[in-house]
Amino acid sequence: MYCPLFIKNSCLATCIFIYRESRISLPEPRAIISSFSYKHKQRGANQMAIYNVLAILLVMNVIASGWKYEVADGLNMYYYMMACPFAESIVKNTVFSALQSDPTLAAGLVRMHFHDCFVEGCDGSILIDSTKDNKAEKDSPANLSLRGYEIIDAAKNAIENQCPGVVSCADILAMAARDAVFFSGGPVYDIPKGRKDGRRSKIEDTINLPSPTLNSSELIRMFGQRGFTAQEMVALSGGHTLGVARCSSFKSRLSNFDSTHDVDPSLDTQFARTLAKTCSAGDNTEQPFDLTRNTFDNNYYYALQRKAGVLFSDQTLFASPMTRGIVNAYAMNQAMFFFDFQQAMVKMGVMDVKEGSKGEVRNNCRVVN
Asked: What DSSP line would sit under 321-361, residue for residue?
């Protein structure tokens, strides 16, 4: 069976027909994901090819089962199949092009999706600009370091040229984060679509974002209030395998830590010196979360085992007996981390989504209609 790597409508329909008529035996999606999750470190055309091959297999596996893959609130894996069939390809190509120019943007997209979902649900509220009458989420101190807004804008503009008023900014952001994970070396997975864009974005709502000073118990409780298990929380924290933290978010660990310790005792002594040197250049100086800041892997968990977690909320996952075993498991088994991460990301992506009249499809991701 042949199908071009860049999915087109006619090709996809042909693939589906051939698959359903011939009953070709395909591997299970989980097996596909596990086998590729740690092997696709190459950049460029090979990565794009793998992505599309896996996407075709995943699509065909679900469609051949009867086109029935709906999740909560009416979201669907193939929500745009008829109304805007090229939407996913446009987002994927936009993200791919951006990361080829600047690989550091992957971390920004993943973090932006997380910060969107934890405030008012996954509704694209993080994308809205402030006005003279309203301070929006993106201007919160917790969000000032977010990057990649221009990628969402570019994808939205390209989609609007083909399918005006159909694809929400919230869905574009969710797809972009998913694609950023893959193009950085992480697993490929699909997400349901159909989110609507929210109309509210207020700076005060960002108080619901997890603080970098929270301990393991506080993180478990905060994530538990949103329906996540401790293991899912630790898996989602693994998103910190991409990107950097600014000194302002961890400098409190380096002096006057508490009444009995000047430096956070959970920090490796040598790594504490490294962080202190970083912070000597100012609060905005950046420290990578692990040694491979642009590669999605399990090195983040290795860092925690070495007591080299940058944020207190990172290192507490290893310091606490409640979560240490999960950290050790992910450090030992990258495939397990990849699988649990993608499952947790799909779950997070349907948090408090807007549907029907509760939301809208913005014409411009930065402005409410």
From this structure: HHHHHHHHHHHH-HHHHHHHHHHHHHHHTTTT-B-GGG-B-
SS3 content of the chain, % helix, strand, coil (to 5): 55, 5, 40
Tens digit of each residue's pLDDT (9 = 90 or more) over 303-339: 999 999 999 999 999 999 999 999 999 999 999 999 9
- In whole angstroms, what is the distance from residue 158 CA to residue 152 CA? 10
Give the DSSP H/E element, type plus range, for residue 157: helix 149-162
Q: Identity (one letter) of the amino acid at 89?
A: S
**CATH code of the domain made up of 210-348:** 1.10.420.10
d(CA 23, CA 366): 46
Please report, to the nearest 10 degrees, the dihedral formed by the alpha carbons of residues 112, 114, 119, 124 taken in order: 50
Asked, colleague to colleague, whether 86-207 and 210-348 share their fold, the answer is no
- Is 263 marked as binding a ligand? no
The answer to whether residue 30 scores a pLDDT higher than 50 is no
Q: Domain residue spans in the chain?
A: 86-207, 210-348
Q: Which CATH architecture has domain 86-207?
A: Orthogonal Bundle (1.10)
40 included as an active-site residue: no
Residue 148 is labelled as binding a ligand: no
C-alpha gyration radius of the chain: 21
183 token code pair: 């193009």
Q: Any binding-site annotation on 262?
A: no
DSSP 3-state assignment of 40? coil
Confirm if 298 and 292 have CB atoms less than 8 A apart.
Answer: no
Dihedral sign, CA of 104, 127, 132, 208? negative
Residue 123 is labelled as binding a ligand: yes
Q: What is the pLDDT of residues 189-201, one digit of tens each?
A: 999 999 999 999 9
Of 40, 113, 115, 261, catalytic: 115
Residue 2: the pLDDT is 35
